[in-house]
Amino acid sequence: MASRERLFELWMLYCTKKDPDYLKIWLDNFVSSYEQFLDVDFEKLPTRVDDVPPGISLLPDNILQVLRHQLLQCVQKTADGLEEQQQALSLLLVKFFIILCRNLSNVEEIGTCSYINHVITMTTLYIQQLKSKKKEKELADETSIEEFVIHALAFCESLYDPYRNWRHRISGRILSNVERSRQKYKPASLTVEFVPFFYRK
Prior knowledge:
Blueprint: H1 4-17, H2 20-33, H3 63-78, H4 84-101, H5 107-112, H6 115-135, H7 143-160, H8 165-170, H9 177-181, H10 194-200
């Protein structure tokens, strides 16, 4: 687990050298530090974690703008087929946003940004690629694409069902009105891109 000092040091290296490799190392260390929040098994009830990821105000000043730019670059390259390194970066970015949203006070701000729209665009392209490859019976390993799609869906869940109410419901556990009244944070507002994406999948 990377310390805050190590994360700060890596961020300063990125800011000084403007080398995207340092940004990837920073993301990798951040995600590794909060990996327990990446709960992508939708058939299981979420495990309780006592700690929470940092609030947005505790992150480096321009981190969200930098990551938005990186995500947009990944989107632009997806249509042409991402290289393995770009695939790894796009997955790290989605994991980062899932982790941020597990601090429920971050959900509203992340939901008002364009991240989810970029992730939906990439996921749609990836699913189209998977469908066409299955149709053509290409048996190449598509694990990285499938992993991205699963994490993209987990990001959607983090934004639009932050208390994982649907997981509780499908497991047979109905939340009482009292339990629901304790859910003080609202889900993000649905974007116009999400509804057709959800119904098409």
